[in-house]
From TrEMBL:
Alphabetical list of PANTHER family matching this protein: PEROXIDASE 25-RELATED
Gene Ontology biological process terms in this record: hydrogen peroxide catabolic process; response to oxidative stress
Organism annotation: Oldenlandia corymbosa var. corymbosa
Record-listed E.C. numbers: 1.11.1.7
Localisation per UniProt entry: Secreted
Cofactors demanded by this protein: Ca(2+); heme b
Name the UniProt record assigns to this protein: Peroxidase
Any one GO CC term of the record: extracellular region
Boundaries of every Plant heme peroxidase family profile domain copy: 22-318
Amino acid sequence: MAPLTRQTIFLLLVLIPLSNAALDSNYYAKTCPQAEKIILETVRNASIYDPKVPARILRMFFHDCFIRGCDASILLDSTPGNKAEKDGPPNVSVRSFYVIEDAKTKIESACPHVVSCADILAVAARDVVAMSGGPYWNVLKGRKDGRVSRASETVNLPAPSSNATQLIQSFAQRGLGVKDLVALSGGHTLGFSHCSSFEARLHNFSAMHDVDPSLNVEFALNLKQKCPKIHRDKNAGQLLDSTASTFDNDYFKRIVVGKGVFSSDQALYNDFRTRWIVESFARDQTSFFKEFAASMVRMGNVGVVEHGEVRAKCNVVN
């Protein structure tokens, strides 16, 4: 049997449909009314101490929902018999798990065994967006925490090198449409990438081009200076837009002029199925905010666990 290529693995994605679970924005109104206040205060304090927290929490939520659905499986630690999602190659750079654990500890003191880690992460993701100048939305709650977390499944996360067709297929596998894809990609307005995620665009890109021709020439030179062919600075990289601590539509404006950092970013502008949406969001930040909030609600309903558990600690099953 021929070995599986990355493309073959990509096409073997497990379907994770939108859930029919009865989530409710007032789910904890009687059982733990202070939960959202505790989460907001925890996230706000952590962000003051470390400005990278908002981008990290938003990415954590996305990476959680895309593997097994929004069940907090990304928060589980590896065990002697199992390597968990957080230790899979795409998640090695995911940080700030302590923020969710801190919120969980405080909530457990106030309302023991009531609020799931999955819901804490969903609320925290909304809060970091709103705190950074982005939209606010009512988070639907009532998720339970999953008990399974496998590093091997993280191969199914969209890669920075993905083309538009791969991205559209990946989102479709999770019941999300093309507009969801473009809107949620706008989450890159917060964040930073290390050279390893985009340096293939800068050196020996193809037989005809040393540098990806879809890159703005001046921008490509700037990236090559930050990420030379041989570099020893593991922290070197690039902000994903020019206002990386502010949630806005600058990400889309930069894609339009060839300044998308990832191949997957620029692919959204280079494909006719997604270009018009990119252009629309680049022109109209209000439209982007509206669609991003709606897409976050839809993504938050992917593969929701109804009959799992409420973990006492987010990093281990009960």
